[in-house]
Amino acid sequence: MEEIINFKTIKEYNNFNNNETLHPLISIVDLSKADPRKLSKLRYEFYTIFFKEVKCGDLRYGLKNYDYEEGTLIFLAPGQVIGENGNEYYQPQGTALVFHPELLYGTSLAKDISNYSYFAYSASEALHLSEQERKTIIDCLEKIKLELKHNIDKHTKKLIVSNIELFLDYCQRFYDRQFITRDNVNKGILEKFETLLDDYFNSEKPQENGFPTVSYCAEQLYLSPNYFGDLIKKETGKSPQEFIQFKLIELAKQKIFDTEKSIGEIAFELGFKYPQHFNRFFKKTIGKTPGEYRTANLN
């Protein structure tokens, strides 16, 4: 079994990077203070946001090389593992905002944090900031730094969590912008998604495996499920699941006109285990059963 360095507390991570611990549940870590170290697999039991704020050729946090422009953010949810084990040494660079889930207990962000789906994106789906966006992110980090330097009092938690939420909201806005500015890339992925579904339904896979899942489609397109879901929603107004169902209905309509096949045979070809499931699905969407739809359109 490969060795994984596990960080359970903020203090452990600060010590690992030669940073002082100003608060037990949150830190802004200057990674340049860390000693050069070997490539390793790392697991964080807290939220981790890496920020590359200088042009230095690559991004190394125990990760593979990523040739990003100035101003890049990577998000990790608690429990995620990144990096790889190796004998090569590297110098960590940039800044990391780390905060433990316990910091959020009793706040509105505790229940809302799951809405920031980018925490489940892969490192290759990083947020690339414009110069103005970069300044906004630095400003948010400076506000958190200022609060961490203040003696802990009854206002500390509320102010820190409010600034984290502001930071995350800005990141959500910037990701929305990134989906738009990378429109050509996104449309290419949408076309590949449609082709993937066409190829899937024209094969034996529906009879063998049922309907294609969102995770399956994301994997085939080399994307994380969350990033894939958000991208398709931005491009089509539908979730990937809704888009799959839309394609399924369109294909079902075509097949229903082949009167040489029974409704049961069509249901099986589409991946339904039982014809009655197909009947319910079709009627719920179209307002008619497959049989009624066939009769109405062939007369």
Automatic annotation (TrEMBL):
InterPro entries assigned: Homeodomain-like_sf, HTH_AraC, Tscrpt_reg_AraC-type_HTH
Keywords (A to Z) from UniProt: DNA-binding, Transcription, Transcription regulation
Transcription regulation is among the record's keywords: yes
Domain of life from the UniProt record: Bacteria
PROSITE patterns for the chain: HTH_ARAC_FAMILY_2 (PS01124)
Domain HTH araC/xylS-type: 191-296
Keyword Lyase: no
GO molecular function: DNA-binding transcription factor activity; sequence-specific DNA binding
One Pfam family here: HTH_18
PANTHER family according to UniProt: ARAC-FAMILY TRANSCRIPTIONAL REGULATOR (PTHR43280), TRANSCRIPTIONAL REGULATORY PROTEIN (PTHR43280:SF32)
Name the UniProt record assigns to this protein: Helix-turn-helix protein
Species of the source: Sphingobacterium detergens
